[in-house]
Amino acid sequence: MTLLSSAPGSASMARKTPSAYAAPPRRKQGGVILAVPALVWYLVFMVGPLVAIFVIAALHWPGMLQPVSFAGLQNVRTVLDDPVFMDAVTNTAVQLVVALPLMIVGAYMLGYYVAQQPPGHRVLRYLLFIPGLISTPAKAMVFYAVLSPDGLFNGALDKLGMGSLADAWLASPSTALACLIVLDVWSGIGFTAVLFAARLGSVPDEIGEAAQLDGAGHWRAMWRIHFPVIRDFVGVVTMLQFLWTLFGSAQNVLLLTQGGPGSSSTTLSFLVYQKAFIAADLGYSQTVGVFLFLVGLAGLLTIRRVFRQNY
């Protein structure tokens, strides 16, 4: 009788259990629990104030300790009919249109120069960072000392024989907003240039060497070669500076011009502060805050579109 013997490896294959081919065990889901405190913090301190802005904007609230009543859309009509609000919109638009391009373009060019590591570039990085280390009141005092009627700028004009051009720069309706824009640009351009220099420093050297072999000068290499490489980073920095200029201008206005003369230097962010803490009209203030939020959201979406962000 003929016996059929199995192949040598067949027995071992038969002895393997299905568990040998089972899927690896799932990872524990304990990481979700660790995210709960951050989620609660975000809901309470981020989403909560945002919802509160919209709620207060629909109320008639003439002060913190005063009775509250529902106003509906009355605050919106009041704000839109107020010429001060329209001046604030115009001033904010001028501030963003002038300050943001000057800051981003100037900072990128300055950062590109620093990234080329010229002699003394390490010291230059520290010098560019100095405005970011000075507190806002200190910077405002410096600008007040320079631009006051008896300040350094008028004194320099007088020494140069151009005393007829001297003016009360911070108290003139035609120059007050321009002085605030100059302060914004001076405060932000150095810090932003250091950020650009750090990002440009991470670009591979082969890219710059290839541009030099092709005969590209610094101007062409800066805008045609390096700028497309860090385009996404430029978009991020532009967003940050846009938000800082839009929402942070109130402190400079408060310290230097108080929104005047008249409303010539009143911005939207300062109008929110003025109506809430000086005029004690919280409903009006937060209605302007809603407009400010919508402007910020529209600006961020526009910047993302311009720089083609994919995040």
What descriptors fit this protein?
70% helix, globular, mainly alpha
Element layout with pairings:
Layout: H1 10-15, H2 30-57, E1 59-60, E2 69-70, H3 74-80, H4 83-115, H5 121-133, H6 136-147, H7 152-159, H8 176-201, H9 205-213, H10 218-229, H11 231-256, H12 268-278, H13 282-307
Antiparallel strand pairs: 1-2
Helix pairs in contact: 2-13, 3-13, 4-8, 4-11, 5-8, 6-11, 8-11, 11-12, 11-13, 12-13
How does this structure look, described?
- The protein is mostly helical.
- Helix content is 70%, strand content 1%.
- The protein has helices spanning 10-15, 30-57, 74-80, 83-115, 121-133, 136-147, 152-159, 176-201, 205-213, 218-229, 231-256, 268-278, 282-307; strands at residues 59-60, 69-70.
- It has a two-stranded antiparallel sheet with strand order 1-2.
- It starts with 9 loop residues before the first helix and ends with a helix.
- It comes from Streptomyces globisporus.
Give a nutshell description of this structure.
With 311 residues, the chain is mainly α. The chain is built from 13 helices and 2 strands. The termini are far apart.
